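SUBJECT: protein chain
CONTENTS: sequence, structure tokens:
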Amino acid sequence: MTIKRVILIILTFLAIALMGQDLFSSLNRPQFQNQLELYQTNLLLQANELPAADANLAAARKALLGQDPIKGAIEQYQEVRQTTQKNLNRARQLAASDLAAETKPLRASLPQGERSLAVIDLNLGMLQAQQGELEAAQASWARVSAQSQSDSTIAPLPDTAQVLSGLWSQPPQILPKAEQQITRSLNGWFRYRALSQLYRLQQRPDALVNLQHNEQQMAEAAFANLALVGGLPVFGSTIGTILLLVLMAQWLLRKNQALLSLGGVAGWQTPWEGEIVWQVLIFGFFFLGQIAFPLVLGSAQALTGIAIAGFGERAKALYILINYLSLAAGGLLVLYWSIKPYFPLPEGWFQLNWKANWLLWGVGGYFVALPLVILVSLVNQQIWQGGGGSNPILPIALEGKDPVALGCFFFTAAIAAPIFEETLFRGFLLSSLTRSMSLWAAIALSSVIFAIAHLSLSEVLPLTVLGMILGFVYVRSRNLLASILLHSLWNTGTLVSLVLLGNGLK
């Protein structure tokens, strides 16, 4: 056994252990979908303040917002609160155990989980007060007030809870700096409703008129954002469903000559053996991403005393971009070094053919992926019940307001990630696997590895489905540009939806 193989074996066990730790930790982190649903709910509440000036607008508003948006919002918040409390309790129990190494990420995530729960209770109390459920509202705010005001992750939420409790008390009480606390802690509909109550109690009609004017403007923007966020996926999924039905009908009629068939498609002529694939994945992806980069960054933070968590929005976005570009450059360098002895490569490897029909394959694959991944994601939510973690970049992008930061996120997600991941997982891994297995098996296995590499249990199933569509498009088009375009469209659509949702709440 060679020294290189011994090192590979050791690094493989290390990679499996570290990935297992990350996946285990993700089990007790909330899904990003929970936060996304609450943002959509908040936007619905804000759009509900838009007056229905004509019958068409009234019908559109009813279709988007439902019959009783506030009642629906209370149910949504209570459901997410229950899931968040359950995940937080489980994380606390595990973090208190003796498994220090395994529970370190859990301990680090606890403050954010506690803050999320406090925000949910703060907003839930506002909804309950609006429905006239004052006892329930006071109970929700009391839970926030009881938390430690010295905790920087929670402050100033306990003070804001006391302000809201006073505004809806009998008789009402206006605490000092009430307006400042409301403006600092609440957004969108919740801020307008709290300020409206404050101005009425203070008998400030001019401030109330200005507030209502601003609220109408924000309601119009929220309604437009909701129409885009909800309408575009529905439109795309409809096209994708029709396209998928047409393709299935063609397959039933033409069998091996159909676009969905791989019957006459050959695999790649692969000059290297499985050890090269193993080497590229371990050295070029898992070792760099799970061991080398975290070690270097951890050492740099220890030496400088600068914590990433303390970065501003723009600095954090630049950090994520530089980190990803460094990982991609290192991974591609390992890939090049590993296959260089086999140059010149057989025809078809890493093909980027600008003259072929890659646009049709990429765009068509995107439309087909929409209904399939959305359907699988709905099933996946029932499996994980709000747990399983998510990509940590998504919440940052959702809450981002800085255009430079958003530009960095866009470049990372829509350009850098598709180029690197498609080159590695489709251009190299999938193609290499066809040496020893069928095309469908290679597509499936490379998709599972692609999904696991994202290190969130809740994303494994939907990302596997997306990976299989990416793999199929690559195999049929024989062009990396097609799968890169599909991947870029998917990430861009996700990012645009997050920006629309986040910017709709002010």
Observations:
- The mean pLDDT is 82.
- The chain is about 75% helix and 0% strand.
- Residues 200 and 208 are 7 Å apart (CA to CA).
